[in-house]
Amino acid sequence: MKKILLLFIAFTINHIQAQEVKTLTYFQNDTLKLDLDLYLPKKKANEKIPLVMFAFGGGFSGGERTSEKNFGLFMAQNGYAVASISYSLYMKGKDFGCKGTLTEKIKAIQIGVSDMWQATAFLIENADKYNLDTSKIFISGISAGAEIGFQASFWDYKLMNLYKSNLPENFKYKGFIGGSGAIQDINLITKEKAIPMLLAHGSNDETVPYSAGSHRSCPTNASGWLILFGSYAVYNQMRDLHKDVEMVTFCGGGHEFSGYLFHDGQQYVLDFVNDVLKGKKFESHIIVPSKKKDLSGKYSFCE
Known about the structure:
Shape: globular
């Protein structure tokens, strides 16, 4: 038994070491240096690697790009590259809640999105060096990172980008994976701009609205009042457009489920990117009861 255990440990270590992790600087000026960790699978001759961009959560004031290392390794072990980026934490030391300033909150998101675009452009420019397939770039994130992913996918790049416009003309992410995120304007998701999505959210999330609602559940007279359209609102929009979308709802759950897809639900992500790249069509809503009851009565599927 001891010999079998040692062989298993050796196999696991070798399997993980077969993946490569590179820390790269994707943006630098006189005052700012931003890095990303690029998780690469074992190289296969003449085979370009699909890429998943990832942004961590933390309310634009905290968090680390290394927080989802296991997700990066998991995807690399299954043939995908993952770029987990650092981005500007503009709200550090500021109020991102109800007593904050609306324009500051939007600025924080815009800076984070611009950083994501910059990181994407950097990897496109260096795609040959790392054997990346620039036609198969997905974007993903948790909470604030998912808000970055939503806006990066649908905002007008030329209008909203704060840095050099260096993404290819008509660039489009291949798909979006979001944990408890939201978009500022649901009407940005059109038939022409829609991309396949995998979304997860708790139906009782009081931080980022599950459907349409105010950020942090702020009252309308709050200085930081911001209306957002969460995962369920986006899911319904995608269904109305007859576009590919998969939604995981944690009935009664709150913001604690924001990281699910990148922790316990990693297989969902792998299946999603596989299905998108195979050209499969899909639309599904997976209902997961949580320990908390949904007493809102808003959603019949949670009763």
